[in-house]
From TrEMBL:
Record-annotated Bacterial bifunctional deaminase-reductase C-terminal domain positions: 5-174
PANTHER family: 2,5-DIAMINO-6-RIBOSYLAMINO-4(3H)-PYRIMIDINONE 5'-PHOSPHATE REDUCTASE (PTHR38011:SF11), DIHYDROFOLATE REDUCTASE FAMILY PROTEIN (AFU_ORTHOLOGUE AFUA_8G06820) (PTHR38011)
Cross-referenced InterPro entries: DHFR-like_dom_sf, RibDG_C, Riboflavin_Biosynth_HTPR
Pfam families membership: RibD_C (PF01872)
Full protein name: Dihydrofolate reductase family protein
Coiled coil start-end: none
Gene3D superfamilies, alphabetized: Dihydrofolate Reductase, subunit A
Extent of the signal sequence: none
Length: 190
């Protein structure tokens, strides 16, 4: 079982625009031609930041058109937010805030032998990293630049903490990089 941060980023290191838009991403490739279908089949629980969850709420119709459901996950999800948010009907979610350790313990129990997916955003993944709970980063890099926006991973991580284990080209618009996080080497967090 691993705790994984699986996300897409622009070439200049942003996962969304400054207005939380992901529109830049959709023209770069087909999700079904990526590692996502295999990845999601091994996920037993989700961790999601409030900005990502609010994007799901704002784009529920678009998500439903693409996936058939406004909430496309069957796994239980922990939404990290200090604000009260709308509940998406049919979603198996819990709202939590504060330190990631206790929710991570709950997610591990719910996931069983499957993995935990940190869906987004970068700061939430950074909190798991800071706590020594992040095992892997799976980053799909798109052939687009945004100039500014929400950073991929707003932490200082110096070698050799991240170990590149694979690179895979996905068509002409994306490349997937997989990194293992070496425990005990977590340092330089900013």
């Amino acid at each position: 079982m691993k705790t994984q941060y699986f996300t897409a980023t622009s070439l200049d290191g942003f996962i969304a625009t400054e207005n939380d838009s992901l529109d830049w991403l959709f023209g770069l490739g087909d999700l079904n031609d990526s590692s996502y279908p295999e990845f999601i089949s091994d996920v037993g629980a989700l961790a999601m930041g409030s900005a990502t969850y609010e994007w799901m709420i704002r784009n529920a119709q678009k998500v439903a058109t693409e996936t058939g459901f406004a909430w496309p996950y069957t796994q239980p999800a922990w939404i990290f937010s200090s604000r009260k948010l709308t509940i998406i009907e049919g979603a198996n979610i819990r709202f939590v805030n504060g330190d990631v350790h206790h929710p991570h313990t709950e997610m591990r129990a719910a996931a069983g032998t499957k993995n935990i997916w940190i869906v987004g955003g970068g700061d939430l993944a950074g909190q798991f990293y800071d706590a020594g709970l992040l095992d892997e980063l799976i980053v799909q890099v798109g052939s687009a630049t945004l100039g500014k926006g929400k950073p991929l991973f707003p932490r200082r991580v110096l070698s050799p903490v991240l170990r590149l284990v694979s690179v895979h080209q996905m068509g002409a618009g994306m490349a997937e990089l997989r990194y293992e996080v070496h425990k005990g080497g977590v340092s330089g967090a900013a």
